[in-house]
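Table 4 source record.
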Amino acid sequence: MFFKRSEGFRYKFEEPLQTTFTIVENGKAEAGEAAIGGIIDISPRGIKMFSTVDLNAGKAICPQLEIRFVIDSQIIVAYGEVMWSRPYMKGKQYGIFFNNQAPLEDLIVEELKLRRKKEIMAEKKLKINA
């Protein structure tokens, strides 16, 4: 079996990271309320996300999304394409690919480093206080 995951790593969150997203049509985000989802894991070039919103409902092509989330401290706005979907609990999981967004890739890596550093410090404090 061949997997397209050629990037160096994927970071899996212990608890899904909250995200909001809107469907992009003709280069602009659709007007209206943003939908809510949870990021299960992330790499510099994409995410695995869960949502109760059916993005494929009545559509022949996979939608483009504008996705907003915070890994550590900065609001990240990413544009991605739904590459796959599968049923998951009461919603669906989606594989979202961020195509050729080098500054975004760098920002994701830096934010993950900061987040992980804080997680390690918190774990050390728990061990010391235990």
